[in-house]
Specification:
Metallo-beta-lactamase, Chain A; alpha+beta; single chain; 5-stranded mixed sheet; binds zinc ion; 2 domains; 8-stranded mixed sheet; globular
């Protein structure tokens, strides 16, 4: 991938920056770095990159973190555009840093809203479905929110506004729009409704599923049981949408998406960070690299767990550097360890033990190596985006 043009220089992490890229067919794409500041945690993702495809229909991919509506408008103005110019909004997944200003932008632009068919359940309330959810009063996307009450409360107005939007097109896996040369792929794991968008068989918008130099937090597989009844029938049979294993399957899917690397891969975070571009030159290679990263993390967890005591908290404290355990970081770290323990448990490489059954004990096997390693091999079938 060649370096995008810098239209507006922003901060050293990319905040307030505007970049421009172009496809071989001449379709322009702008990237806007919308601020994404988390307080009380050192897990910095950098801004959310929202992309604008300047095709026949002006298409916006993601609307950025809640509370940045004015910033969004002023960045648009810099490139001589107005909200009213946007014809279509595509949301990559139901997280606050991606659909945060959606209600306001959709109201002003009257653009069509496109999202995965599970998105509706994620943004809606399901107060009658308890099924062991920690927060059954919150929308589908947040029924297991691990954050403390004060942080959760900051999102309440965002949830309310977001639940009011109308979804015009609910896309399924492999949904194709020939006239705009758009192809949608369902790549769940980070969230159940994560999608990737391929433009002109050349540009791959990855959302959070494929990022340079970091990886997103996976969901937990054990949330499937409690949430599955909020989803359409076809997703209730067996868990294909939650947890690290499904995330790894999505990476495997990405690795096999095309026989050639996408010339332009545009992630939702870290495109520019620490004063430099972090380009993904080959999406397949990056997908395999992330699978290897999770295998290494599983191995490290097994080594830590070999020396008791080893609760999720103990393992998180030893696996992550102290700066990532500060404040809310601790919740994220424990969630991350849990996602890996789920795979290790499924592979029978660990078991729960101790008087409170909250300690993790390795069984002495490394079955996860073969299980996850199988997803690094080149996939048997390749799905060419052009077909
Ligand atoms: Zn994100």
């Amino acid at each position: 991938m060649k370096l995008p043009d810098v239209v507006v220089e922003g901060k050293e992490n990319g905040e307030g920056m505007i970049i421009r890229s172009q496809t071989g067919k001449g379709t322009e794409i702008y990237g806007l770095g919308i601020p994404n500041v988390y307080t009380d945690s050192d897990w910095s993702l950098g801004p959310t990159w929202c992309y604008l495809i300047m095709g026949k229909k002006k298409t916006l991919i993601d609307t950025g973190r809640f509370g940045n509506h004015e910033m969004f408008k002023s960045l648009l103005k810099t490139i001589h555009l107005d909200l009213a110019d946007i014809d279509r909004i595509i949301i990559t997944h139901s997280h606050e840093d991606h659909d945060g200003n959606l209600a306001e932008i959709q109201a002003s632009s009257r653009a069509e809203l496109w999202a995965h068919q599970l998105y509706h359940a994620m943004i809606s309330y399901h107060p009658d479905v308890d099924e062991g959810a920690i927060h059954p009063e919150l929308p589908g996307s947040c029924r297991f929110c691990p954050m403390p009450e004060n942080v959760r409360n900051e999102c309440l107005s965002y949830h309310r506004e977001r639940s009011s939007v109308t979804i015009d097109v609910a896309v399924k896996d492999n949904f194709e729009v020939r006239e705009d040369q758009l192809l949608f792929v369902h790549i769940p794991g980070h969230t159940p409704d994560s999608i990737g968008i391929i433009l002109e068989d050349e540009v791959f918008f990855t959302g959070d599923t494929l990022l340079p130099n970091i990886t997103p937090h996976p969901t937990l597989a054990n949330h499937f049981e409690s949430n599955c009844s909020i989803f359409p029938e076809e997703f209730r049979e067996g868990n294909s949408i939650y947890g690290l294993m499904n995330y790894i399957k999505s990476l495997h899917r990405i690795a096999g998406l095309t026989s050639k690397p996408f010339p332009i891969t545009l992630p939702a975070h870290r495109l520019f960070f620490n004063n430099q571009f972090n380009l993904i030159h080959n999406a397949s290679d990056r997908a395999r690299e992330i699978i290897r990263f999770h295998m290494d993390r599983c191995m490290d967890i097994l080594e830590i767990a070999a020396k008791p005591p080893s609760t999720l908290e103990d393992i998180a404290a030893q696996h992550f550097p102290p700066r990532l355990l500060k404040g809310l970081g601790k919740n994220l770290a424990i969630n991350e360890i849990s996602a890996h323990i789920e795979i290790l448990e499924e592979c029978e490489d660990v078991r729960w033990t101790g008087p409170e059954m909250n300690a993790i004990q390795p069984t002495g096997t490394n079955n996860f190596l073969d299980r996850l390693g199988a997803y690094i091999d080149p996939p048997m079938q390749t799905l060419d985006a052009a077909q």
